[in-house]
Structure formats: C-alpha cells, structure tokens
Amino acid sequence: MTPIRLRIDRIVDFGTIVSLVGCDSETGEPVTVHVDHRPFKAFWDAWQQEGFPQPVEYDAERLILRLDVMPNAADA
Fold it and tell me: 15 in the Ramachandran plot: left (φ > 0), alpha (ψ -120 to 50) or beta?
C-alpha cells in the first residue's frame, strides 16, 4: 500500500462513525475515511453474526496517525 497525505475539508459525526472528507494532497483526488470508534469486539461480533466474509487486514508498518479534532468555536 502506498501512504497518502490528506487535507481534511469536513468532518461528519454520525455518532458511532466519524467520516473525514477531503482530498489527497498530492493528486487532488477526493478521499473519505470512515472511522468507527465502537469497541472492536462489538463490531467484530456484529460482523460475524451477519455472516459477512472475513475482512482483509494489513500490517500497520510504522503508521502514524494523529487526529486532534477540536470543534470550531463559532459552531459550539
């Protein structure tokens, strides 16, 4: 997998899932990242109960991810 750098334009909070909407800084292509912040066990149990196939997993290999999300003072 090739690493990408994203410019986040919008954050959409659905409660259990947060979507980061933006674009690839190098190519300008639109990108959306969905972050599910439920405990992984709850997600995995529900996944298996629905009979979905086992997901593909990748090794994180030196992944650095920092999300400092602070509400805009004007929106609070």
Answer: left
